[in-house]
Amino acid sequence: xxxxxxxxxxxxxxxxxxxxxxxxxxxxxxxxxxxxxxxxxxxxxxxxxxxxxxxxxxxxxxxxxxxxxxxxxxxxxxxxxxxxxxxxxxxxxxxxxxxxxxxxxxxxxxxxxxxxxxxxxxxxxxxxxxxxxxxxxxxxxxxxxxxxxxxxxxxxxxxxxxxxxxxxxxxxxxxxxxxxxxxxxxxxxxxxxxxxxxxxxxxxxxxxxxxxxxxxxxxxxxxxxxxxxxxxxxxxxxxxxxxxxxxxxxxxxxxxxxxxxxxxxxxxxxxxxxxxxxxxxxxxxxxxxxxxxxxxxxxxxxxxxxxxxxxxxxxxxxxxxxxxxxxxxxxxxxxxxxxxxxxxx
Length: 345
Fold this sequence. Notes:
Largest sheet: 6 strands, mixed
InterPro entries: AAA+_ATPase, ABC_SmlMolc_Importer, ABC_transporter-like_ATP-bd, ABC_transporter-like_CS, Mo/tungstate-bd_C_term_dom, P-loop_NTPase, Transp-assoc_OB_typ1
Organism: Arthrobacter subterraneus
Number of strands: 21
GO molecular function: ATP binding; ATP hydrolysis activity
Number of domains: 2
CATH topology of the largest domain: Rossmann fold
Protein name: Molybdate transport system ATP-binding protein
Distance between the termini: 25 Å
Keywords: ATP-binding, Nucleotide-binding, Transport
Helix content: 10-25%
Order of helices and strands: EEEHEEEHHHEHEHEEHHEEEEEEEEEHEE
Strand content: 25-35%
CATH architecture of the largest domain: 3-Layer(aba) Sandwich
């Protein structure tokens, strides 16, 4: 493993354990306040945990008795704000890392030019940060971080502050420069996870609640947060004949690809688009029916998302109008068993 780390901070309700293989990019996701940025700050040396240890390529970053200062860790942290030195040119900003590591001025400038070319910002070399757009500044910040040749790159929502038209450009740049590089990226955007990360870690309440290959976590989520990211409904319980038995007593029918042993912890997922909404309890073909209370409505042009607690349905806006849906209205959700997938946890 390239990185092996654990950290406990009781005052922040943090108890995390994370490992990272050489050349692997991990996306860290979770609700606000879950502990994502705290994890990066601990690894970067900005926060000292009460207990725990971490090593990077065999070098101890910290343990209960040792503490390596940030500048000696071989870790670069890239935040939402580019934080470029305003009094230095773009070239000098990027050359700062190599110069700090002892490189000659010419060698540092050569490295800076190379990395500016990597992020498609070579034409900005002579500019001051005040003349850069948000997207340009963030590309320069990426170049500056990589010019230091860090053993580990930490990115704390690097695309969050960018205009929606600019973010895809930087995302493509990151995809290219992160290839084969050890990195941890905190993000709220599922697109970042899909395009940039080999693995996804979900943090909630200061604990890692889910960890696995990106597509596996997003296509087969085991936590409600991951299910929300993936845009699917998630119910948990235990396996039963033909489906799932939830803790609330609901029997959910599903078509499974294999026979699942009964009584095992499992999850059922189904798309909001597979859910029909009714005023009266439906009958007819085999289906799962839930008695729900509408909690929220979100209109997206011709379609409307109907939320009922942690369940959601996506129907046409015309249908929503015909049903006269309002928060607090009692309705029925139904989904055919063929649309439900059950898998063991």
